[in-house]
Amino acid sequence: MAQQFGEKVLFVATAEPLDDEMRSRIEIHKINRPQGWRTLEATVGIGEEIIAQ
Q1: Ranges of the chain with pLDDT below 50
Q2: Domain boundaries in the chain?
Q3: H/E stretch holding 33
Q4: pTM here?
Q5: What is the DSSP letter of 8?
Q6: Which InterPro entries match (predicted)?
């Protein structure tokens, strides 16, 4: 939705690659993610990480 209004997109990735299936799902998502999106990979302290961006 933000992209439709010309806003920057920050994708917050919270998944942890704990097994092969999840690693595969994460890689597929990275490949399919629009190039203009910024990505924050974090599982804890997400609010602080976003503020630090």
Answers
A1: none
A2: 2-52
A3: none
A4: 0.72
A5: -
A6: CobU/CobP, P-loop_NTPase
